[in-house]
């Protein structure tokens, strides 16, 4: 903000005023020369180690010569750790450590994700953003509110919305020869609609079709379902009920415990062979830098493989690699003929001649990893430090240090984001996201008012992440490993740290009581560790109890 010739700004809530600012000075130059914020300069290009200090100051980072704009960070620590940790609006500088690999260059370079800006800004177009075509109809599911019951009939209240119903589609409308099939998985198949018996609360019974989505949604809420539980046993709504009544599923073969890999044998046989097609000596650089990879959709490829298990990135990269091999096979013989006639030729000449001789310069490959390529181990470790407010049960994550094995990262910039995102998602699982059900097993935590997800305040105040380069992996795509899902489990460190904080609070609080049955170290600490659970386990069921204890202690001292 410019006020009467002065530049006024704040860093970490500290106010600065500077006058006579040269308008041509860049922000980085200004902060270093005038505001006297200094950061250590990295030896760019001197090695493969990459070190970033990030702070709560946003920046558009690029990665020339193994560095981020040439500097380890733009702002240093200001103030003590104690002051900053107790400020809810401050995020401490954190580290992102990456060891680059040139084995498959340019694969392995930290490249910004395609579409990152439009996704982060909300400009990305999703299905719900596409305007409905003319005369489009809309549907809304009608769900069962009972976990185990016979369906005797479905009617709709007479309202404006119900009068807009064009059709109610149920099992009765499945064509002859068709199947009532919703999804198929290892544990078996689920029906699309319940037929005459509901098997769980929330099971789809049918779809209301109306002219608008609003009318469809309103009409679905006007459904009256007639149930009967005659001759039915009580439903099983918990693991304890299932064990008590010996109700178990057979374990499907794909989930059996298997020994994965032979570590000594793998180390002995590793040959570090680079698999890449070459047109020139630096074929990877010359080819990949000149190949345009289009967005994967049903226009470019009519089918797509299974995307679970963090396989999408490797599938895409292997498909691109194989497509490049196809292009190389088409161009190689032409290149040899041209060089016999003209001597060494450039890439531009080769492509120009290929175009004139009707060589197909586009290729597509459909590639899905086989089962053996999925059988490998991911390694990672994390340690977290938390602070628990014993009066409210609120948990603040002060610091997390995390190391994760990505094999040889296909894109360190994306992998870092995936790892950090998965960890924060794991924080939600271990600490916040509680699924609440009513007595019939129907989920009632159906919105953010009752179902709490991670927010920006959930992120550790200091979050240090290191990518571990574990070398060559023969069955992995370019020696890479998944980073999208496994790091979620490392957030268990936050839950464990909270448990230790609770144990310390119990030791302090329960030592002031005369209850001989009070247990300090032994307690059940379920997931998620929500605020009410943490508060209760700390020994303070309510603030009043704490105040009573506090008051009685002071009275004894005064006496």
Strand content: 15-25%
Please give the radius of gyration in angstroms.
Answer: 31 Å
Helical residue percent band: 25-40%
The end-to-end distance, rounded to whole angstroms, is 59 Å
Query: Which spans have pLDDT < 50 for at least 5 consecutive residues?
Result: 38-83, 271-277
Keywords: Molybdenum, Oxidoreductase
Pfam families: Ald_Xan_dh_C, MoCoBD_2
GO molecular function: iron ion binding; iron-sulfur cluster binding; oxidoreductase activity
InterPro entries: 2Fe-2S_ferredoxin-like_sf, Ald_Oxase/Xan_DH_a/b, Ald_Oxase/Xan_DH_a/b_sf, Ald_Oxase/xanthine_DH-like, AldOxase/xan_DH_MoCoBD2, AldOxase/xan_DH_Mopterin-bd_sf, Beta-grasp_dom_sf
List keywords for this structure.
559 residues, alpha+beta, 27% helix
Secondary-structure map:
Blueprint: E1 2-3, E2 6-11, E3 14-19, H1 27-33, E4 49-54, H2 81-85, E5 94-99, H3 116-121, E6 138-143, E7 149-156, E8 165-169, E9 183-185, E10 188-190, E11 197-198, E12 204-210, H4 213-221, E13 223-228, H5 239-244, H6 263-269, H7 283-288, H8 312-342, H9 347-356, E14 380-388, E15 395-407, H10 412-432, E16 462-469, H11 492-510, H12 531-537, H13 543-558
Parallel strand pairs: 5-16, 15-16
Antiparallel strand pairs: 1-2, 2-3, 4-5, 6-12, 7-11, 7-13, 8-12, 9-10, 14-15
Helix pairs in contact: 8-9
């Amino acid at each position: 903000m410019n006020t009467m010739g002065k530049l006024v700004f704040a860093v970490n809530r500290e106010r600065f005023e500077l006058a006579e600012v040269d308008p041509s000075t860049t922000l980085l130059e200004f902060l270093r020369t005038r505001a006297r914020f200094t950061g250590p300069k990295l030896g760019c290009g001197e090695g493969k180690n990459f070190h970033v200090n990030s702070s709560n100051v946003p920046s558009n980072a690029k990665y020339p010569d193994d560095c981020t704009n040439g500097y380890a960070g733009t702002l240093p620590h200001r103030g003590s750790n104690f002051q900053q940790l107790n400020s809810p609006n401050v995020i401490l500088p954190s580290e992102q450590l990456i060891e680059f690999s040139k084995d498959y260059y340019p694969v392995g370079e930290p490249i910004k994700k395609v579409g990152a800006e439009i996704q982060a800004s909300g400009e990305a177009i999703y299905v719900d953003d596409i305007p409905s075509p003319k005369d489009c109809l809309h549907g809304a599911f009608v769900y069962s509110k009972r976990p185990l019951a016979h369906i005797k009939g479905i009617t709709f209240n007479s309202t404006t919305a119900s009068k807009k119903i064009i059709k109610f589609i149920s099992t009765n409308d499945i064509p002859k020869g068709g199947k009532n099939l919703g999804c198929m998985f290892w544990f078996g198949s689920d029906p699309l609609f319940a037929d005459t018996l509901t098997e769980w609360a929330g099971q789809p019974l049918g779809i209301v079709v109306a002219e608008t989505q609003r009318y469809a949604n309103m009409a679905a809420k006007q459904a009256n379902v007639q149930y009967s539980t005659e001759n039915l046993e009580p439903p099983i709504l918990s693991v304890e009920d299932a064990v008590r009544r010996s109700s178990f599923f057979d374990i499907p073969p794909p989930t059996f415990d298997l020994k994965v890999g032979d570590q000594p044998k793998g180390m002995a046989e590793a040959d570090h062979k680079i698999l890449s097609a070459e047109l020139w000596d630096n074929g990877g650089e010359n080819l990949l830098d000149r190949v345009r990879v289009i967005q994967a959709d049903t226009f470019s490829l009519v089918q797509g493989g299974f995307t679970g298990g963090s396989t999408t990135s490797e599938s895409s990269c292997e498909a691109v690699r194989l497509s490049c091999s196809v292009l190389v096979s088409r161009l190689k013989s032409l290149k040899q003929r041209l060089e016999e006639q003209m001597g060494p030729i450039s890439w531009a000449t080769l492509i120009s001649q290929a175009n004139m001789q009707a060589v197909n310069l586009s290729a597509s490959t459909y590639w899905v990893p086989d089962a053996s390529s999925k059988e490998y181990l991911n390694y990672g470790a994390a340690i977290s430090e938390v602070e628990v407010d014993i009066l409210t049960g609120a948990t603040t994550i002060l610091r997390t240090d995390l190391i994760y094995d990505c094999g040889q990262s296909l894109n360190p910039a994306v992998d870092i984001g995936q790892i950090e995102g998965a960890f924060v998602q794991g924080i939600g699982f271990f600490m916040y996201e509680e699924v609440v059900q009513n007595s019939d097993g129907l989920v009632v935590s159906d919105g953010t008012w009752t179902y709490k997800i991670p927010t920006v305040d959930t992120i550790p105040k200091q979050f240090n992440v290191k990518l571990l380069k574990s070398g060559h992996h023969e069955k992995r795509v370019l020696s890479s490993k998944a980073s999208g899902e496994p790091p979620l489990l490392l957030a268990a460190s936050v839950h464990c740290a909270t448990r230790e904080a609770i144990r310390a609070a119990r030791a302090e609080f329960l030592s002031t009581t005369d209850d001989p049955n009070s247990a300090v170290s032994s307690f059940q600490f379920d997931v998620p560790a929500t605020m009410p659970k943490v508060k209760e386990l700390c020994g303070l069921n309510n603030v009043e109890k704490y105040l009573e204890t506090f008051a009685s202690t002071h009275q004894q001292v005064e006496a």
